[in-house]
Amino acid sequence: MNEPTIFEQPIHSKDKDPEVGEDAIYMPEYGANGRGPSRVGEEGEEEDDFRDYVFPEERKLGTWSTAFLIFNRVVGAGIFSTPSSIIHYTNSVGATLLFWVLGGVMTFCGLAVYLEFGTAIPRSGGEKVYLERVYRKPKYLATCIFAVQFILFAISTVGSVSFSSYLLRCVLGSPDTTTTGGTAQEDATKYEGTWLNRGIAVAAITAVCLIHAFLPRLGIWLSNGLGVFKLVLLILVVCTGFAALAGNMEGESPRNFSSFDGPGDATGNGDDQTDGMGNNVAGSAAGYALALLQVLYSYGGWENANYVLSEVRDAPKTLRLAAPIAIGTVTVLYVLANIAYFAAMTKDELSKSGVVPTAIFFTRVWGPSAFTKRVMPLFLALSALGNVFAQSFAMPRVKQELAKEGTLPFSRFWASDWPEQKSPTGAILLHWIFTVALILGSSTKDVYQFLSNIFTHSGNWIKVFLGVGLLYLNFTPSENWTTPENKRFHSYPVLTVFWVVGLLYTCAAPFIPNQLLTKVHFSVVPALGTGMLVIGVVYWVVWAKALPAFGFSIQHEVVVLPDGSERVKYKRVRPRGGRSGARGR
Question: Residue 325 needs a FRET pair 20 to 30 A away by CA distance; which of 172, 302, 378, 575 works?
Answer without folding.
Answer: 378
